[in-house]
Amino acid sequence: MVGITALVSRTGLLPSGIVEKVEIKQPTWVYQKLLSRQTNLCATLCCPSYPDIYRDTKVDTKVKKDYYRASMVSPTLLDILNMQWLSPEMIKFDQHLKFPHLTNNSDPAMKRSEVNDIISSAKEFFSGQKFMLPEWAHWPPEKWLGKRGICNEIAENKLGWDITDFGSGDFYGVGLTLFTIRNGNWNRKDKSYCEKIMISEEEQVTPMHFHWSKSEDIINRGGGNLVMELYQATGEDHLSDSRVTVSIDGILTGVTAGEQLVLKPGQSICLTPRLYHRFYAQKGHGKVLIGEVSMVNDDVSDNRFYEKVGRFPDIDEDTPPVHLLVNDYPLYF
Fold first, then answer.
1. What structural domains and CATH numbers belong to the chain?
2. Which pTM was predicted?
3. Closest listed residue to residue 66, CA positions, set 94, 89, 93, 42
4. In whole angstroms, how far apart are CA 59 and each of 12, 64, 65, 234, 271?
């Protein structure tokens, strides 16, 4: 496999417009920088690790968003295009290849045994709340083998188990359990909506972030109370101290920036693009079953975290998986 280290050391930073063929000798992840979201034109580079893909660059006085995506490719020839955007600040040139602005490789890995325990606990909680998951949520890894054709929507749209500690190394302090039930895909143009079910433990924080494009309703579907902290984003993507007006169950409500807004079971809030939010289950009231109904979810290019996090953790395979995470599908397909 030709990694980016070999490529860059051989060619240097290519001038804009130069195209080079690179042979991929075995299935591998590749990063692609989207040069145009409309035409899907992209710059491609080889990479063996999975991304938490977004970064922002300042252009004059405006913020320009660079979009990235990743996909698993079979042995093939790839066009390497417009490589001049690479810089030593972005890439640590070693055999593993680390993208400091894109991945969480420097963060502690979650152990597979911990992920298994979290999923087992989540299934019990879902059942206790009378929330039923689709049948394939309970499939063992071997049942996925050879099912790429009939399960392509699940894999491409990242449906299923998503356990993250956001690179904190402390899941129960900073983390979230998610299961994506249905989701569309802007590239496939199949659905324009998404539904998730999530679990937040008491005082388990989902870090401050907003979405560039997605509007979403977050619903307390049962258990304890859900605490929301909200800030409007400034033009420079900082936290504004201005008051925030949101819709809670269809009723416009004004709150102070950063105020602890408590959603009781049955209540919901509509979060619009560029509205920073962090949330957690209120201490002393139990974990919360959280629903999300939204536009298409795109963790590749639509999340903007206020502080650097690792959206998808590295996994230390200390034991076999009981159920697959959304990032595991390519290994079994």
1. 4-85 (no CATH), 110-332 (2.60.120.10)
2. 0.71
3. 42
4. 24, 6, 10, 16, 27
